[in-house]
Each structure stands twice: as structure tokens, then as C-alpha cells.
Amino acid sequence: MIPVQIIKRGVTLRPNRILTIPNIVTGFGILLVVVYILMYTTHTAEVLIPIIVIVIGLSDVLDGFLARALNQESELGTYIDPLRDRLMMLAIITNILWLASDINIALVVSILCAEGTVIVINAFAKYKFKLSVKVHLVGKIRALIHLASAWVFSVMLYWPNVWKNVEPTWPPVNINLLLSVMLTASILTTGVYLKRLISSLQ
């Protein structure tokens, strides 16, 4: 999830907390992203990929919930949580480019540019103005949209028989449509984050 809520200077996270339950959940999600990449690049147990994507999504939901519920928010968590999401986004894009055809490259480049902009703004806020950031609802929604798009894509590719049964009940879906949905989520998140950063500096 992309952090899009600026927290004023002086907010205390817990820099010494490393082996917390939320960080372990996030680390497990990062490990699963690596497994996902290995599965589609080596064509190993690909039938499990849609399940892996769901579990990664659950880790995205659980880590933030557990951090708040257990009062275990940490400085490390603010780094590895968005790291997991960006790695997953790159894994999705790579998977699509790796196996799908007739891809609109402009959509892929635009998604990467939008996400790159968020990274730059985030770094600027942290290291230039010493602002801490906190995950915002918009960032969570964006991450869930990316994961949902990844899951639909994985079902289309790795569970073709399931997709044949489901497809007639859905509106027309193709890879470029999924990329367009991902791009819209990324652009909206970038805009909200930029607006909040500018407001915090005024």
C-alpha cells in the first residue's frame, strides 16, 4: 500500500522494533512475492499462482491491522510494507510482459512512472523535510486494486477452465483493461499523496 497521509514532525514510531508480528507478516508477503516470480519464470507449480496472489493480498491487509491492534507500529514496518507492495506491482507487470501478448506498452510505462513518482515524493518528504508518513485509505485501495487485477490476470492465465466458466458472467475483460484499472489507481494515489505533501509544507 502506498503511504499517502503525511504525519507531522515529531511522530514517534518504534525504531528498535524489528521482530514484531506485523513485520513478520510483511516479510512473509515479500517472500511470497519472490516465490511468485520464481513460479512463473521457471513454469513451476503455476496452478498455485492465483492462490499465492490471494495470500500476498491477505498479508497486505493483516500487517496494518495487526500493527494497530497490537500497538506494534515500527519504523521498519513503514519501509518494508510499501516495499512489499512495489515488489508485487513489479512482479505483476513482469508476469504480464513475460507471458501475455498484445500488451499496450504505454500503459505499462505510465504505471511505472506513476509509482516512481510516489517513490520520489516519499523520499523527498522523508529525507528533505524529515516528515514521517502513514498508510492512508487511498493507498490501501490502490494496493487492493493492483492485487485484484493480478488475481484476475492469474486466473485467466493459470486457471483457464475456471475462467471459461466465469467469463460469460462478467463484463468483457482483457489484459489492457486490467492495466488501465491499475494505472487509474496509481494516478489517483499519486495525486492524493502529492496534494497532502504540498498542504503539509504550506
From TrEMBL:
Transmembrane regions: 21-41, 47-71, 106-125, 137-159, 175-194
PROSITE patterns: CDP_ALCOHOL_P_TRANSF (PS00379)
Cell compartment(s), UniProt: Membrane
Example of a GO biological process term: glycerophospholipid biosynthetic process
Pfam families: CDP-OH_P_transf (PF01066)
InterPro entries membership: CDP-alcohol_PTase-I, CDP-OH_P_trans, CDP-OH_PTrfase_TM_dom, CDP_ALCOHOL_P_TRANSF_CS, Phosphatidylglycerol_P_synth
GO molecular function, one term: CDP-diacylglycerol-glycerol-3-phosphate 3-phosphatidyltransferase activity
Membrane topology: Multi-pass membrane protein
Keyword Glycoprotein belongs to the record: no
PANTHER family (alphabetical): CDP-DIACYLGLYCEROL--GLYCEROL-3-PHOSPHATE 3-PHOSPHATIDYLTRANSFERASE (PTHR14269:SF11), CDP-DIACYLGLYCEROL--GLYCEROL-3-PHOSPHATE 3-PHOSPHATIDYLTRANSFERASE-RELATED (PTHR14269)
Family: Belongs to the CDP-alcohol phosphatidyltransferase class-I family.
Protein name: CDP-diacylglycerol--glycerol-3-phosphate 3-phosphatidyltransferase
Organism the protein comes from: Candidatus Spechtbacteria bacterium RIFCSPLOWO2_12_FULL_38_22
